[in-house]
Amino acid sequence: MKTVAFNGSPKKEGNTFHAIKMVTGELEKEGIETDIIHVGNKTIRGCVACGQCRENKDERCVLPGDDVNEWIQQMKHADGIILGSPVHYAAMAGTMKSFLDRAFYVSGSNGGMMRHKVGASVVAVRRSGGLPAFNQLNNFLCYAEMLMPTSNYWNVIHGTSPGEAKQDAEGVQIMQVLGKNMAWLMKLVENGKGRIVPPAPEEKSYMNFIR
Fold it and tell me: Tell me, which fold does domain 2-192 have in CATH?
């Protein structure tokens, strides 16, 4: 099994990275391969609502010049996905938002490529605003019908300078418990394949309240 994690921080090895490493460290103890991709230092355009990915159904975003399509394929072939972001004005980092908007819209437009994968979100913050950012990340996982492991508190860790998050004893435990629960859930999903029939995907019902 394999997990791919996305670091949405501009800093390659800031506190978001360390939070992700705490989770992936537990996954690796259980024999799960992990890969961390640095998204936050890239230039990524946001979705322009052109609808071409829904029309073409080729699992690709038509916007050129970045690695979004490569990352989408890595997500498709992974068993688990971790989304990590620092907190900017009580929200996820802008580059991460641009990436996720495009990646998850492509997924939904191509048969739900992330459906029933195991997905978790983690957030690093100096002081406050962690929960709104955490909820933002979780919205993508929920909408994609992903399976979400939990920890013993919300997945938020605190620190300012790179590495300070490792001093947040409670935050460290939160990430480690998350990693253990994620590994367990991934194994449940893997061992259930061919034995337990998953619910069939349903055609999305859309409703417009403007008359």
Answer: Rossmann fold (3.40.50)
**Domain regions of the chain by residue span:** 2-192
Q: Are 96 and 85 in contact (CB under 8 A)?
A: yes
Task: Locate 173 and state its tokens.
Answer: 């435990």
Using the predicted structure, report yes or no on whether residue 211 has a pLDDT greater than 80: no
Kindly state the tokens that stand for 96.
């991460």
CA atoms 47, 52, 53, 55: torsion sign: positive
> What confidence tier does 152 reach under pLDDT thresholds 50, 70, 90?
very high
User: In sequence order, which residues have a C-beta less than 8 Å from that of residue 188 and are 6 or more positions away?
Assistant: none
DSSP per position, 29-63: HTT-EEEEEE-TTS--PPP----HHHHH-SS----
pTM: 0.97
Please say whether the beta carbons of 14 and 85 come within 8 A. Answer: no
